[in-house]
Automatic annotation (TrEMBL):
Key words, A-Z: NAD, Oxidoreductase, Tricarboxylic acid cycle
Family: Belongs to the LDH/MDH superfamily. MDH type 2 family.
Organism: Neogobius melanostomus (round goby)
Protein name listed in UniProt: Malate dehydrogenase
Protein's job: Catalyzes the reduction of aromatic alpha-keto acids in the presence of NADH. Plays essential roles in the malate-aspartate shuttle and the tricarboxylic acid cycle, important in mitochondrial NADH supply for oxidative phosphorylation. Catalyzes the reduction of 2-oxoglutarate to 2-hydroxyglutarate, leading to elevated reactive oxygen species (ROS).
Binding site for NAD(+): D30, N93, V117, G118, N119
Residues at the catalytic site: H175 (proton acceptor)
Length: 321
């Protein structure tokens, strides 16, 4: 996650996330052995001479890092290597999120917005939320915007249009290879005319086959090629997610986010962080309810929920939370 750590603060300090008028105090937390490296990041941020950046606090202490925070982006975790699934990181990483959740509970503002990125992101987010009982669960979300952007781009490339012409893809479930990228409600603007994705792409076999597996496996494909996990695209997705959380989603559009399931939407089990289509207004997300779900989608939505349930049960047993 090293490069995310460098890139996201840059975009944030530049005004791409919280707006061009919002002065920024950046707080960077890392483990003690990484403090000299973090100093390098601080130097570079200073050298960018960014007008909105008022202060940079670099620390290895949670009580300093989480004090009075308005927004927290939790990226710190062991990244996966080639051949691993994200859930293989469960035992290595989940303890970090228990500790950071507890520190948020103790030190951050109760209005803090917490975005969990470190993998397995959904389950880490659930553990952080459970470890911060005084902060509303509404304030926690995990990153599936990277998958959402991947799905959008795959359709756009196929149709020969910019990604901005593709709207309302959905990522359901886990940020893992069981996630379900769904285009049944997606529309593509082709030469000024909005068409359902299936009509625009004209290749149902691809949309129900290789498209889905490409998005599901994209993180692994990037790791195989780079020998490192995604950095630039992950940083961009973090910024997209936080910006929408802060400023809202555009009229008529939804995005995908891992959010707390209270058991009332789409038959998804309660007490999971599950990626749903959401709309955001006044810094509050709402699940877009009432979309038609066919049998093909239902089976895939249930399979990814089942994986999340197993991850949750393993994590809860491991941590005793
Ligand atoms: C990604 O999707 O690129 C990240 O979650 C990193 C990973 O392990 O795949």
């Amino acid at each position: 996650m090293g490069s995310i750590f460098n890139l996201s603060p840059f975009y944030i300090a530049k005004g791409d996330v919280f707006g061009k008028e919002q002065p920024i105090i950046l707080v960077l937390l890392d483990i003690t052995p990484m403090m000299p490296v973090l100093e390098g990041v601080v130097m570079e941020l200073q050298d960018c001479a960014l007008p909105l950046l008022r202060e940079i606090i670099a620390t290895d202490k949670e009580e300093v890092a989480f004090m009075d925070l308005d927004a927290a982006i939790l990226v710190g975790s062991m990244p996966r290597r080639e051949g691993m699934e994200r859930k293989d990181l469960l035992k290595a990483n989940v303890a970090i999120f228990k500790s950071q959740g507890a520190a948020l509970d103790k030190y951050a503002k109760k209005t803090v917005k917490v975005l969990v990125v470190g993998n397995p992101a959904n389950t880490n987010c659930l553990i952080a939320a459970k470890s911060a009982p005084s902060i509303p669960k509404q304030n926690f979300s995990c990153l599936t915007r990277l998958d959402h952007n991947r799905a959008r781009s795959q359709v756009a490339i196929r149709c020969g249009v910019p990604a901005t012409q593709v709207k309302n893809v959905i990522i359901w479930g886990n940020h893992s290879s069981t996630q379900y990228p769904d285009v049944h409600h997606c529309v593509v603007n082709m030469s000024g005319c909005e068409q359902p994705c299936f009509d625009a792409v004209k290749d149902d076999a691809w949309l129900k086959g290789d498209f889905i597996s490409t998005v599901q496996q994209r993180g692994a494909a990037v790791i195989k090629a780079r020998k490192l996990s995604s950095a630039m695209s992950a940083a961009k997705a973090i910024c997209d997610h936080m910006r929408d959380l802060w400023s809202g989603t555009p009229q008529g559009e939804f995005t995908s986010m891992g959010v707390y399931s209270s058991g009332n939407s789409y038959g998804v089990l309660e007490d999971l962080i599950y990626s749903f289509p959401v709309q955001i207004k006044d810094k509050t997300w709402t699940i877009v309810d009432g979309l038609a779900i066919n049998d093909f989608s239902r089976a895939k939505m249930d399979a990814t929920a089942q994986e999340l349930k197993e991850e949750r049960d393993t994590a809860v047993e491991f941590l005793g939370v």
